[in-house]
Write a structure and sequence with these properties.
Layout lengths: L1 E7 L7 H14 L3 E4 L7 H9 L6 E4 L2 E2 L5 H14 L4 E6 L3 H6 L8 H16 L6 E2 L4 E2 L22 E3 L4 H10 L2 E2 L9 H14 L9 E2 L2 E6 L3 H18 L7 H8 L3 H12 L3 H6 L3 H7 L1 E3 L1 H13 L4 E6 L4 H14 L1
Parallel strand pairs: 1-2, 1-13, 2-3, 3-5, 4-5, 5-8, 8-9, 9-10, 11-12, 11-13
Antiparallel strand pairs: 6-7
Helix pairs in contact: 1-14, 3-5, 5-6, 6-7, 8-10, 9-10
């Protein structure tokens, strides 16, 4: 099992210098990769280019590029550019984001996501293979008909023969599609105890494409972690993040993270967290998160306990564990990055 370090969103509680120092620490400790995210603040591509130019070995990945923010061709251009800047170290993670961000921030309708994702990946692969970009589908048509558009091909050749494409998927149908068309899966709030259900969906998707989930397919969950002898303090550090996503990400009618937690068997807690959060009671929502849920989807507690828990991720078939250190100081963050490398 490889380790990745997740730097999340740039500028939120960590300076540029501290972020770079953390990534260099991870590279020195033997981490395989670093991953950056985007929502409606910093963009991931700029951060990854900056990190690639100041590291030597560690691979760089987007977790994720938002599909509604970029046309498929723009994503291919960015991927090829980052692959050159990093000398062939780039991994492309994409996702559909959510309806609030897609429609409120990017002005893109959040509809027919399965078909849109399928076509998006097809166009990106075609562009990266430097084929002339022609596509006629339900979501995209290239070139546009009855106009001056031409079927163009990418001007630069990526360093890697095949840049790996990861998809962030939560729902069953999206997970199945990921197994069919992607090289890797980036789940959030991943529970090793529930991997059999997800693996079955991935395998069903892979079978549709006439392949199997062999060693080339990477299960790469993003996991918040805190190594701390005080278990309650470690758990409490996870509460605001979990409450935000389970309670406040989306609406009562559509919240993918809330639905996921329900599938894990925490229906009552999920409803309470959401009701409290959407009523403006964020602290109460965080306090309502069961410790068992925190332990299920995070790496928390004393060093030995975290080391033992890592075994569950290995047994679940995780190829890359993308770890986000939840810490109060830069020094503590660096310490935990080193300790996790030693435990892994």
């Amino acid at each position: 099992m490889r380790l990745g370090v997740y730097v999340g969103y740039w500028g939120l509680g960590i300076t540029a210098e501290q972020q770079l120092a953390l990534v260099r620490e991870a590279e020195s400790a033997g981490y395989d990769s670093v991953w950056a995210a985007e929502a409606y603040g910093s963009d991931a591509a700029t951060v990854l280019a900056w990190l690639a130019g100041q590291t030597e070995r560690i691979r760089i990945g987007s977790a994720i590029f938002q599909m509604p923010a970029r046309s498929p061709a723009m994503t291919a251009m960015t991927a090829a550019t980052l692959d050159h800047i990093s000398s062939g170290r780039f991994m492309l993670g994409i996702g559909s984001s959510g309806p609030q961000v897609a429609e409120g921030w990017h002005g893109q309708r959040f509809a027919k996501q399965l078909q849109r994702t399928r076509e998006y990946v097809e166009i990106v692969r075609k562009a990266l293979a430097r084929e002339r970009l022609e596509h006629e589908g339900e979501a995209y048509t290239l070139p546009l008909p009855d106009g001056p558009g031409k079927a163009l091909k990418l001007m630069i050749v990526p360093v890697q023969e095949r840049i790996p494409i990861y998809i962030a998927a939560i729902g069953p149908k999206n997970t199945q599609l990921t197994g069919e068309i992607a090289d890797g899966w980036i789940p959030t709030f991943f529970s090793p105890e529930h991997v059999d259900e997800s693996r079955k969906l991935l395998e069903e998707g892979a079978a549709r494409a006439g392949r199997t989930l062999d060693d080339s397919f990477d299960i790469a969950p993003t996991v918040n972690f805190r190594i701390d002898d005080d278990l309650d303090r470690a758990r409490d550090s996870m509460r605001p993040f979990i409450a935000l996503y389970v309670g406040g990400m989306g609406s009562r009618e559509k919240n993918f993270y809330n639905a996921l937690v329900c599938r894990y068997g925490f229906e009552e807690a999920a409803k309470e967290i959401q009701d409290l959060y959407l009523d403006g009671k964020k602290d109460e929502a965080a306090a309502a998160i069961p410790p068992e849920l925190i332990d299920r989807i995070s790496l928390v507690g004393p060093r030995d306990a975290v080391g033992e828990r890592l075994g569950a991720y290995r047994d679940a078939g995780v190829g890359t564990l993308i770890a986000l250190p939840v810490a109060f100081t830069p020094e503590e963050r660096s310490r935990m990055v080193r300790e996790l490398a030693e435990l892994a």
